[in-house]
Design the sequence.
């Protein structure tokens, strides 16, 4: 099974560096343009089903990405972004001044991030992997898409790379509408073929595309 992992397009909160987490925001004009550009690239892949975070920004992204196809799409709370509790809605610059220790941990030592009322990255990774295992069957010769969020997708990819969560934010950068491809071999096991647009095919098999 091939799993296409897609981050949502830029939002109005991304543009002003405001913490989203599980609060709602909408795609910016640039975010809609990013989704349109990615839609053209995805057209060559025989994706059969779409699993989408229940957040508005991911719903909007998925609607643009697959508007030319009649694909079964389901929405899942388990695919939402990391829950950041009291941080959500704040501006990053304000958080850096208000909570410098945890702000540093979030970006530089994510394995140590701990804010009361927020998820840890360990909890996020576990949630993401449980969601992936609940919606995939590695034995199926199929291609699906998951439209989700940057921190969740990077936490999941850390698992498949064997990368410690302390290194979560290392490149490749998970930009808006970044497209990664995962080949599943067994539950919780697989190979990364593409990471945020960076070709990792030397680690797995060639990608399958519609001729």
Sequence:
């Amino acid at each position: 099974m091939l799993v296409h992992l897609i981050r949502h397009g830029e939002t109005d909160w991304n543009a002003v560096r405001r913490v989203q987490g599980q609060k709602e925001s909408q795609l910016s004009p640039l975010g809609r343009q990013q989704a349109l550009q990615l839609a053209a690239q995805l057209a060559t892949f025989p994706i059969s089903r779409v699993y989408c975070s229940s957040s508005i920004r991911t719903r909007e992204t998925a609607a643009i990405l697959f508007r030319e196809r009649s694909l079964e799409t389901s929405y899942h709370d388990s695919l939402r972004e990391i829950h950041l509790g009291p941080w959500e809605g704040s501006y990053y610059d304000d958080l850096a001044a208000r909570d410098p220790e945890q702000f540093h941990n979030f970006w530089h030592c994510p394995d140590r991030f701990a804010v009361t009322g927020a998820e840890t990255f360990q909890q996020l990774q576990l949630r993401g992997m449980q969601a992936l295992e609940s919606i995939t069957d590695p034995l199926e010769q199929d291609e699906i898409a998951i439209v989700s969020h940057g921190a969740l997708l990077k936490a999941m990819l850390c698992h498949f790379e064997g990368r410690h969560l302390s290194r979560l934010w290392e490149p490749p950068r998970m930009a808006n509408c970044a497209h990664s491809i995962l080949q599943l071999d067994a539950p919780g096991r697989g190979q990364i073929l593409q990471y945020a647009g960076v070709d990792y095919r030397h680690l797995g098999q060639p990608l399958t595309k519609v001729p």
